[in-house]
Specification:
33% helix; 6 strands; elongated; six-stranded mixed sheet; alpha+beta; 5 helices
């Protein structure tokens, strides 16, 4: 839903982590800005702000997006998942167990991206994992622990009983 306040600001509703939130935005506000400044969801990190690093990755309608490149208004009526919505998820637990965290700045974006990878490619092999991880830069690791965490989460998903 979109309601104009005046010629410079608009009230929108965003569905984030299963909850509806109102936000007052300018038409040029990025989703990253709105999540952090309007909704207080600071897991998506403000880093390069040009789509190169992936620290701001969120899921919009199940697709990984660099929220620094997405306008808030484009996400109206689309389900958004941030790292806060993946609390205690299998992929987050795998990252902790495999020590796939160094300084942690990139971690939220990598976990969100890895979650999407696991959902879309539950049988992903090394090549697919490496391809997906290319959208997230980490300056602290050689990515080995991150790959091991993704593989552990994939294995866990395969071993979970079906709920369908």
């Amino acid at each position: 839903m979109i309601n104009s306040i005046d010629t410079t600001k608009t009230i929108i509703q965003l569905l984030v982590n299963g909850e509806t939130h109102d936000a007052v935005i300018r038409s040029a506000d990025t989703l990253l800005h709105t999540l952090r400044e309007q909704l207080g969801l600071t897991g998506a990190k403000k880093a390069c702000e040009n789509g190169d690093c992936g620290a701001c990755t969120v899921l919009v309608n199940g697709e990984p997006m660099h929220s620094c490149l997405s306008l808030s208004v484009e996400a109206v009526n689309e389900p958004i998942i941030t790292i806060e919505g993946l609390l205690d998820s299998p992929v987050q637990k795998a990252f902790i167990e495999k020590w796939a965290i160094q300084c942690g700045y990139c971690t939220s974006g990598v976990i969100v991206n890895a979650h999407a990878l696991i959902e879309k490619h539950p049988d992903a092999e090394d090549e697919t994992i490496e391809e997906w991880l290319q959208s997230n830069l980490c300056r602290c690791t050689g990515y080995q622990e991150i790959k091991e965490a993704v593989k552990a989460a994939l294995l866990e998903k395969k071993n979970l009983p079906s709920t369908g």
